[in-house]
Amino acid sequence: DKKIRLNVGGAHFETRLSTLKRHPNTLLGSEEREYFYNDDTNEYFFDRDPDIFRLVLGYYQTGKLHYVNQECISMYDDELTFFRIPASEIGDCCYADYEENRELVKLRTMIDSFHRCHFFNPTLMSMRERLWRKLSYDVTVTGFWMSPPTVIMTFVVLICTILAIMETVPCGTFDGRPDSKRCGEEYKNLFFYLDTSCVTIFTCEYLLRLYAAPNRTAFAKSCRSLIDIVAVMPYYLGNIIGSKSLLGSFQTVRVVRFLRVFYYSKGLYILFRTLQSVAMEMGFFLISLSVTIILFSTIMYYMEKAFAFGTFTSIPATFWFAIETMTTTGYGDLVPQSYMGKFIGGVCCISGILLITLPVSITVSNFSRLYHQ
Question: What biological-process terms (Gene Ontology) are attached (predicted)?
Answer without folding.
Answer: protein homooligomerization
